Amino acid sequence: MSQIRGRFHKATDKLVDQYTASVGFDWRLYSHDIAGSIAHAKMLAKQGIISNKDAEAIINGLSSIKEEIEQGKFEFQPELEDIHMNIEASLIEKVGETGGKLHTARSRNDQVALDLRLYVKEAISSTIAQLKEFQQALISLAEANQSVIIPGYTHLQRAQPVLLAHHLLAYFEMLQRDVGRFNDCLKRTDVLPLGSGAMAGVAYDIDRDFLARELGFSQITQNSIDAVSDRDFIIEYQAAASLCMMHLSRLAEEIILWSSEEFNFIELDEAYTTGSSIMPQKKNPDVAELVRGKTGRVYGNLMGLLTTIKALPLSYNRDMQEDKEGLFDTVDTLLSSLEVFTGMVTTVQIKTENTERALEQGYILATDLADYLVKKGEVFRTAHDIVARLVSYAIEKSKALGELGLGEYQRFSPLFSEDVYSITVESSIAARDNIGGTAPKQVEQALARAKKIIGLFNNLSP
Ligand code: ARG
């Protein structure tokens, strides 16, 4: 039976207790709830709303409840609904009637909003820390293979040669945007809702600035109705998490492709692969597959909460209790995906014999041939045409471009001369020497910049 039964003549139905209880999952907010309550008790005493002695008893009681929870000694009672009521009931049990003063000038509506904001702030800093670890792993892999050239792809067709480091740094950029999004989300999460009461504000002379300072918020909410209704910050976290998982899923997909026998560009460490229960030859990239797969549930959690909040009238509605499980799941999924992915990337081996072979096959230098003709005075569109016909001829003859004789080249354009043979994958990448290009010089600078961004010392700089 619920605690607050004052106006009721009947106990709630057992099924209703079970159906409405949230303590099975919102217990995870216990430390934030207790931190919020301690700050609230301090503020009440400072404002003379409760006595210092009462505040002290309340704070001691709350601290021992925290210890009990952390030692696994606390007995959560589903019939007390949620984490807030569980802690309050235990406090009253411990310190007597005084415990009942804690909820003066407060409602569970501003209390839960506070707990969630504290939780999301913490989640954001863990997420950013984990993102930086992952970025560091990408940088290390790029640096360890700084001279490795791979085919770059468009439409999953070999397109132009690029440095592997350049390809890896593409992910660094994506992750840096993710860091930016989480930081941005932090600005709107870092706002104290406590003091909004049930929805109209509270009829006591409270000090919200004091609460904000105590709890480390840089701003306070400016409208009590909005403050208890707003879950945007959770949705923003979930949206940023969805984009981040999308990025991870793209790298996961490339790792899966690259570790396949068809590509065979990389060797995953055995610690990050599994065998098949039936096919002894298999070494499956399960970690990458699961990162790719778990992206779905993170999107689902975002859509779930958007849908829950959609068209809810102001202000608090019990529907909003549904904000938590998806949030916790997203945070757990994102953090664990980042962590395991970091380990996998750190241990990956590049099979350069195969990346080199992939560069020899195909016509990956076709763009460079067209550029060659343009530099000799040909119009780009015409040059493109000439090379297209040349490639088609080479395919017919089953020859690589380098295997064609000068006479064969000259059949397509008189501008071809002996120096056409100096076009190589190395000259191709070196030519792309603009900011953002794959030339070794550019990539070296990009690596230095990346290291600076994540706050590492750059050995190259004076
Ligand atoms: N368990 C509730 C939630 O998570 C806490 C707020 C309850 N407020 C209320 N008026 N019933 O949303």
Offer a concise description of the structure.
With 462 residues, this protein is mainly α. Helix content is 59%, strand content 5%. The strands form three sheets. The chain has a two-stranded antiparallel ribbon. Strands 3-4 form a two-stranded parallel ribbon. A two-stranded antiparallel ribbon has the order 5-6.
Describe the structure.
There is one protein chain. It is elongated, with a radius of gyration of 30 Å. 59% of the residues lie in helices and 5% in strands. The longest helix is centred in the first third of the chain and has 37 residues, at 108-144. A two-stranded antiparallel sheet has the order 1-2. Strands 3-4 form a two-stranded parallel ribbon. Strands 5-6 form a two-stranded antiparallel ribbon. By secondary structure, the chain is mainly alpha-helical. Arginine binds next to helix 6.
